[in-house]
C-alpha cells in the first residue's frame, strides 16, 4: 500500500510493538471480531467495541455497547470527539490520533521489553496506577506525553514533575554531536542541588558517550556522570545525568535511567519517522508567486537552507520577509526544532537583553526564578531577528560574542551555556547606510549576512498581484462563509495597475475589506474600491516608487512635500502620532522646513 505521508492514523502499543492503523475510510469499526476494520485481539475489547468516523481533523468515536467502555482520561463516555494528537483508552490500551507517516517501524529487543512491561503497568483500574512505584509512574507518564509532542525539546519539561519526585536532584541532558566535534544540547532539565554544568566538560568521554553506558564515573571536581545511549535511535544521542561528585546512585535508579533512555529513544524514532519522512524532496512552497525573480530567490533559499549559513533578508515593509525566513527554516535540517522569533524594535533596550539572554534567579529585583532567553530556546533550531537594524549597539556587541563563541551567559549567571544557532535577520532599512553611519557594527554584519537576499516590492512583480489577491479572498471566504463570485475584469485591471505601497500586507487587508462589503453572490466592482485607488492618490504612490524602493528617507520627504510640510496631515497619512513622525524625521536626518 502507498501511504499519503500526511495521512491520519491511530497509534497504539501491543505486545511490545508500536502499531499504526492508517485511516483510509471515512467510517470504520474497532473490536475483537474478525469483521472489524481494526482488529484488536485483547480480552478487554468487545467483538464490536466502537464505531469511528473521520471528519476533517476530528475523530468521532461511539461506543457500540461494549463491556469495558471508552475512556477519555478518567471519564467513561458513550461518544466523544478526539482532536489531532488526542488520546482515548480502551481497557489497558491507549490510542493516539495522529497525522504523519503511518508506516510502522521496528524497535530493539531491549526497548520492546520496556514497552511490554509498560503495557502491563498501564492496567485498567485507576487504583492500580496509583500504586505504581515512582520509577514506573515516571515511565508511564513520559510514554503518554511522548506520542503527543512534536518537538523533542519539550519531552523533559513534560516529565519534570515525576522526574523531580523520582530523582530529587541533579541535572539531565539530552545530547547529540554538534558541528566541529562540539556537543549539542537537545534538551536539559535542572532538578536542583547541582551548580549548572558546562557540557564541554563531557568532551573527554567522547566517543564513549554515544556507544557505551557510563556508570558513576567522576567528572572533574564537581560531578559524577551517568550516561545511556538512546538505543532505539539510529543516530548518536545520549541521556546524561549529572550528580554532585560525592553522590552515587542505587542499582534500581540506574535501571530506571536505562529504561528511561530506551523510552526516549523510541519517542525520538517515532518523531523522526512521523515528521522527517513526511517531507518530500521538493516540498511545495507556501509562498505564492509567478514572478521569475521571486522563483529564483526561492530556489536560492532552498539551497542555502541545507547548510548553516546566516541569512539577512531585506525589503520594504509587507514584502514577505518573515515568510522567507520560515521557508528557510522549514526546508532546512533544523525544521524539527524550534523557530524562535523576536522583534528587536518592539521591545525596550533593557527588556530586549533579558528576552535574548534570559536571567538567573536573583539577577535583579524582580527575578524570582530562572528565565530561559530566546537565544537559548532557539538552540538547535532557527532564531529570527526581526528589525535587526534597530538593535542597540550595546546589544549588538553581546550578540556578536554569542555568534563567535557559540555560548552565552544568562543575566546574573557565571556559567557559560553552549548554543547552536542558525540566525535569519530581517530589515526594511538600508543596511549599508546603517554601516556607514556607525549605527550598525560591521563585524556583526559579516556574522549575520553570510547570504543576503533582497525581496522586490510588489509593484516590481505585477504578475503576483491577482494570484495573491485571489488567495486572500478565498481564505477570507473560507473563514467567514461569505460567498462572492470573484472580481470583475475592470476591478482586476485597477488592482493590477495600483502600486501597492503596503505590498502584500496591503493586498491582504484590501481583499478582506472588499469581500466583507461586497454583496453575497456578486462580483467585486470598482465602486467598492477606496479613494486611494483613484488617479490622484496614485500619483503620490508613483512619487514614492520613483523616490526609491528602499529609501525610507526619500519617501518620507515626498510625503512631506505633498502635504507642504504639514506634519499633522503627514502623520495622519502614515497613521502615526506627530511625536513618532518627529522621531522618524530625526532618525533619517530630515530637517524641519517651514510651511510655505
Provide the descriptors you would attach to this structure in a database record.
596 residues, alpha+beta, five-stranded antiparallel beta sheet, 21 helices, 21% strand, flat, disordered N terminus
Q: Can you offer a commentary on this structure?
A:
- By secondary structure, the protein is an alpha+beta fold.
- It has 21 helices and 27 strands.
- Strand 22 and strand 23 (417-418) form a beta hairpin.
- It is flat, with a radius of gyration of 29 Å.
- The model is unreliable at 1-5, 123-130, 276-285 and 544-550 (pLDDT under 50).
Quick description:
The protein has about 600 residues and is α+β, with helices and mostly antiparallel strands. It has 21 helices and 27 strands.
Unreliable runs? 1-5, 123-130, 276-285, 544-550
Mean pLDDT: 80
Share of residues in strands: 15-25%
How far do the termini sit from each other?
Answer: 78 Å
Biggest sheet strand line-up: 4-3-5-6-9
Structural class: alpha+beta
Total number of β-strand segments? 27
Helix content: 25-40%
The shape, in one word, is flat
What's the story with the biggest beta sheet? 5 strands, mixed
The gyration radius over C-alpha positions equals 29 Å
Q: Helical element count?
A: 21
Amino acid at each position: 500500500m502507498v501511504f499519503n505521508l500526511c495521512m491520519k492514523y491511530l497509534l497504539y502499543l501491543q505486545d511490545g510493538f508500536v502499531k499504526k492503523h492508517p485511516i483510509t475510510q471515512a467510517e470504520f469499526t474497532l473490536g475483537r471480531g474478525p469483521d472489524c476494520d481494526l482488529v484488536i485481539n485483547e480480552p478487554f475489547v468487545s467483538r464490536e467495541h466502537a464505531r469511528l468516523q473521520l471528519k476533517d481533523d476530528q475523530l468521532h468515536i461511539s461506543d457500540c455497547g461494549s463491556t469495558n467502555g471508552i475512556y477519555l482520561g478518567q471519564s467513561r463516555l458513550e461518544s466523544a470527539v478526539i482532536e489531532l494528537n488526542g488520546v482515548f483508552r480502551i481497557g489497558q490500551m491507549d490510542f493516539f490520533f495522529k497525522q504523519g507517516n503511518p508506516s510502522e517501524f521496528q524497535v530493539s529487543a531491549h526497548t520492546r521489553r520496556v514497552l511490554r512491561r509498560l503495557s502491563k503497568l498501564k492496567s485498567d483500574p485507576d487504583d492500580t496506577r496509583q500504586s505504581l512505584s515512582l520509577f514506573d509512574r515516571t515511565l508511564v507518564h513520559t510514554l503518554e506525553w511522548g506520542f503527543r509532542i512534536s518537538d523533542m525539546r519539550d519531552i523533559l519539561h513534560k516529565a519534570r514533575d515525576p522526574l523531580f519526585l523520582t530523582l530529587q536532584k541533579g541535572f539531565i541532558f539530552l545530547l547529540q554531536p554538534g558541528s566541529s566535534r562540539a556537543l549539542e544540547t537537545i534538551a536539559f532539565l535542572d532538578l536542583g542541588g547541582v551548580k549548572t554544568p558546562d557540557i564541554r566538560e563531557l568532551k573527554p568521554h567522547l566517543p564513549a558517550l554515544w556507544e557505551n553506558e557510563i556508570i558513576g564515573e567522576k567528572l572533574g571536581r564537581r560531578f559524577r556522570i551517568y550516561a545511556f545511549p538512546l538505543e532505539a535511535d539510529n543516530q548518536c544521542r545520549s541521556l546524561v545525568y549529572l550528580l554532585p561528585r560525592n553522590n552515587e546512585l542505587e542499582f534500581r535508579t540506574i535501571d530506571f535511567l536505562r529504561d528511561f533512555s530506551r523510552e526516549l529513544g523510541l519517542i525520538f524514532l517515532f518523531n523522526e519517522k512521523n515528521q522527517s519522512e513526511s517531507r518530500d524532496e521538493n516540498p511545495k512552497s507556501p509562498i505564492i508567486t509567478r514572478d521569475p525573480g521571486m522563483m529564483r530567490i526561492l530556489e536560492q533559499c532552498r539551497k542555502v537552507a541545507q547548510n548553516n549559513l546566516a541569512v539577512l533578508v531585506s525589503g520594504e515593509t509587507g514584502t514577505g520577509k518573515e515568510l522567507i525566513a520560515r521557508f528557510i527554516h522549514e526546508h532546512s535540517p533544523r525544521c524539527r526544532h524550534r523557530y524562535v522569533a523576536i522583534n528587536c524594535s518592539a521591545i525596550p533596550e533593557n527588556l530586549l537583553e533579558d528576552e535574548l539572554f534570559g536571567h538567573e534567579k536573583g539577577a535583579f529585583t524582580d527575578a524570582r526564578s530562572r528565565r530561559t532567553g530566546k537565544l537559548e530556546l532557539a538552540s538547535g533550531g532557527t532564531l529570527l531577528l526581526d528589525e535587526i537594524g534597530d538593535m542597540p549597539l550595546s546589544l549588538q556587541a553581546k550578540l556578536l560574542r554569542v555568534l563567535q563563541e557559540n555560548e552565552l551567559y544568562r543575566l546574573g549567571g557565571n556559567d557559560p551555556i553552549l548554543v547552536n544557532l542558525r540566525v535569519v535577520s530581517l530589515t526594511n532599512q538600508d543596511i549599508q547606510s546603517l554601516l556607514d553611519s556607525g549605527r550598525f557594527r560591521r563585524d556583526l554584519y559579516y556574522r549575520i549576512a553570510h547570504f543576503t537576499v533582497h525581496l522586490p516590492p510588489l509593484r516590481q512583480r505585477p504578475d503576483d498581484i491577482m494570484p495573491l489577491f485571489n488567495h486572500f479572498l478565498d481564505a477570507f471566504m473560507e473563514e467567514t462563509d461569505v460567498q462572492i463570485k470573484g472580481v470583475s475584469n475592470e476591478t482586476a485591471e485597477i488592482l493590477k495597475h495600483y502600486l501597492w505601497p503596503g505590498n502584500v500586507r496591503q493586498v491582504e487587508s484590501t481583499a478582506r475589506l472588499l469581500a466583507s462589503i461586497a454583496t453575497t453572490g456578486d462580483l467585486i466592482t470598482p465602486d467598492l474600491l477606496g479613494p486611494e485607488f483613484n488617479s490622484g492618490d496614485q500619483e503620490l504612490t508613483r512619487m514614492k516608487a520613483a523616490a526609491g524602493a528602499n529609501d525610507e528617507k526619500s519617501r518620507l520627504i515626498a510625503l512631506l512635500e505633498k502635504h507642504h510640510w504639514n506634519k499633522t496631515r503627514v502623520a495622519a497619512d502614515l497613521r502615526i502620532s506627530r511625536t513618532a513622525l518627529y522621531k522618524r524625521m530625526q532618525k533619517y536626518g530630515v530637517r524641519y522646513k517651514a510651511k510655505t
